[in-house]
Amino acid sequence: MTERVIALIPAFNEAAHIAAVVDKARAYVDKVIVIDDGSTDQTAQVAQSAGAEVFRHNVNRGKGAAIVTGLRLFAESDAGFTVLLDADGQHDAVDIPKFIEAARQTDASIAVGTRMGGTRDMPLVRLWTNQFTSWVTSKLARQRIPDSQCGFRLLRRSVLGDIKLSEGRFETETEMLIQAGRAGHKIVSVPIRTIYEGQQSHIHPLRDTARFFRLVARYL
Questions:
Q1: pLDDT at residue number 35
Q2: By CB distance 3.0 to 4.6 Å, which of 11, 47, 156, 185 could disulfide with 52?
Q3: What is the topology classification, in CATH, of domain 5-219?
Q4: Rounded to the nearest 5°, which phi and psi values hold at 67?
């Protein structure tokens, strides 16, 4: 396998943002793949026009399912690394080289973005939720992860054999860290800047909090 890098972008109804995200990511990776999770707008067409390879779910199955599909495509590729980033423009692709460098320098299997160095613009409820869930996830993964809920992350090919993800929604990103940590993979954090410009969150506070606690119960 090579040191090629692919970007995986799960997307649902992000036609307004996806072109800019794809265009910027293409400058730092060898290929961009958008997993269109059953969008009802022009997300797939816009992403393809911007230069991405698009894989489409016929119906909306949730972010977790899109991540599972993306990781399967990564496993079938010849790339050594994949970078996951969100489709709504909150993650700045200019940070991608920092993830690659962190993984290479530390031999980490996963590098996770952390927004905890600059939380002034982060909504307060999101900050408190992230701090709590990151503390719980760190305990379950057996290593410190300051911002476990950050979707901007890099995975090394070697971690794929030790993560068997359920097709959930937002809890899938937590499950990935717990499984990798318990299998002995090193997880490092990479400081990033997050762009808050009124993007509409797809997180449902009550439903997804309940799912998080069900996930925690499985691993206790």
A1: 98
A2: 47
A3: Spore Coat Polysaccharide Biosynthesis Protein SpsA; Chain A (3.90.550)
A4: -65, -45
